[in-house]
Design goal:
mainly alpha, Neurolysin, domain 3, 2 domains, 3 strands, 65% helix
């Protein structure tokens, strides 16, 4: 067949789309195995799972490297002006993914998949014992793997290039320099705000909700997340060491963790992960194997989880509806606690050591800490062995607290065990995007919290479906923000939101 006949007969968006289904399906299987690894896998199955994930990664890599995909892309690129905007987006992202697949050797893909599986178990064991030295070799190997990956993709000229590559993998269109500029402006406004909040004589009472039965927590958070719009016909929630969300809109797997003396932790973790799940469930069905049905990036993903967790679920309107139900679930625990005391506990501001337990005001300092350490790791200014000391010093500087052990410090997060460097900035980017989306939504519906007070989240969900979910990957991260809000990505709306939410409580 000549190139012309191939182009005429085979090179169509539908043809390319059909070829993309297999690698996408294999990737979803790997994601489910990863979920199972953290939720159900018995300890003795760790090595078998590493082999399974390695074999599956090899199969997915082979499918993604299928020469027919490259032929379709090349032919469609020649006639790109004839394609619709949706078609051009499919081809553009297919090119990005195909080039990545074909430039990574199969042996490297197998090696990385097997190692990150083993690294997860090394991290879990080291975290349990607060023993960073036991985990350091696995982390060093992960650093080596991502540097090699970046080099295969043409980003190996320096450590900084490798880090830019990793950031762009999670948030297309972003770089370390762009993140640093945003974070510097945020930090300048955030640090004095944190100092003002923590110096306030107003304090939320700690430990006011104790002995809350786990089964009742499960029932309450299920009611909350269903009311928000999470579809349990296409999802479920389980328990893991570190809360997360995996899967696609057809099959979402969320996790949380329960503490009888801290029911708000499981609740807000579940709301956060449900935000991720709602985004996945809102992406265009039937197109999940192409860019049109995939999330724009992790910053966009985090914007959805953080908006539901914070702007929505910590609002007065939200608790006007759910407080009576919460008190009904935990009558003994809430007796003697006034509505204002409960609301202050929900919006408590107190610097802490653990990121996932951090309040909304200090949370971004945890992300800035990790970003600054990652930059040093990739530039060569910090060795893996020096991470605990560097972490503790940064914690003292930014949070005014020093971890008592590595479990409270450098070992608290799972991300580096999965070689997910460059992911942490997505959380802070997501907070910025969430604030911009919040004010854009309020501009259209100023009385939005009145909806929440009635238990009605449908308008906001519909607005997010139209502005964010339906867009798939038509835009990179900065482009999605411009599309949805009409403005460039900025920390200013986040600083405004934190001021407006917390100053009335603490000043």
């Amino acid at each position: 067949m000549t190139n012309d006949s191939f182009k005429a007969n085979s090179a169509s968006i539908d043809g390319l789309s059909a070829l993309l289904k297999r690698p996408h399906t294999l990737a979803t299987i790997a994601e489910l195995l990863g979920w199972d690894e953290q939720v159900n896998l018995p300890p003795g199955g760790a090595e078998l799972r590493a082999g399974q994930l390695s074999a599956l990664a090899e199969a997915a890599h082979a499918a993604a490297s299928d020469p027919r995909i490259g032929e379709h892309i090349a032919a469609l690129e020649k006639d790109a002006e004839k394609l619709s905007p949706d078609g051009r987006a499919v081809v553009r992202w297919a090119r990005r993914d195909y080039d990545r697949a074909t430039k990574l050797p199969a042996e490297f893909v197998r090696e990385k998949a097997a190692h990150v599986s083993r690294a997860y178990h090394a991290w879990a064991a080291a975290r349990e014992k607060a023993d960073f030295a036991a985990y350091a070799p696995a982390l060093e190997k992960n650093m080596d793997l991502v540097r090699r990956e970046a080099a295969y993709l043409g980003h190996g000229g320096s450590g900084a290039e490798a880090y830019d590559y990793m950031i762009d993998q999670h948030d297309p269109g972003m770089s370390a320099a762009a993140v640093e500029k945003l974070f510097d402006e945020l930090k300048a406004g955030l640090v004095p705000l944190v100092r003002r909040m923590t110096a306030s004589p107003v304090k939320a009472r700690a430990g006011i909700l104790r002995g809350c039965a786990v089964e009742k927590q499960k029932a309450f958070l299920r009611e909350v997340t269903e009311r928000m719009g999470f579809d349990y016909n296409h999802g479920r929630i389980d328990v893991s060491l570190h809360p997360f969300c995996a899967g696609t809109g057809d099959d979402i797997r969320m996790t949380t963790r329960y503490d009888a003396d801290n029911p708000l932790d499981s609740l807000f973790s579940a709301i956060h992960e449900a935000g991720h799940g709602i985004y996945e469930q809102g992406l265009p069905a039937g197109r999940r194997h192409t860019a049109l049905g995939q999330a724009a990036g992790m910053g966009a993903h985090e914007s959805q989880s953080r908006l539901w967790e914070n702007q929505v679920a910590r609002s007065r309107g939200f608790w006007r509806y759910f407080e009576p139900r919460f008190r009904e679930a935990f009558p003994e625990q809430t007796r003697g606690i006034s509505p204002d005391e409960l609301y202050l506990a929900i919006n408590a501001v107190k610097p802490g050591l653990i990121r996932v337990d951090a309040d909304e005001v200090t949370y971004n300092l945890h992300i800035i800490l990790r970003f600054e350490l990652e930059k040093k790791l990739f530039s060569g200014g910090l060795a893996v062995a020096g991470l605990p000391r560097a972490w503790n010093a940064a914690s003292r500087e930014l949070l005014g607290l020093e971890p008592a052990n590595d479990r409270e410090g450098v070992l608290q997060d799972v991300h580096w065990s999965g070689a997910s460097f460059g992911y942490f900035p997505s959380y802070c980017i997501g907070n910025m995007v969430a604030a911009q989306l919040w004010y854009a939504a309020l501009a259209e519906r100023p009385a939005l919290e009145n909806d929440f007070a009635r238990g009605d989240f449908s308008w906001l969900l519909g607005w997010l479906r139209a502005k964010v979910h339906s867009q798939g990957r038509l835009h990179d991260t900065p482009g999605l923000v411009r599309h949805a809000t009409g403005a460039e990505l900025s920390p200013k709306p986040l600083l405004r939101y934190l001021e407006e939410r917390y100053s009335p409580l603490y000043c």
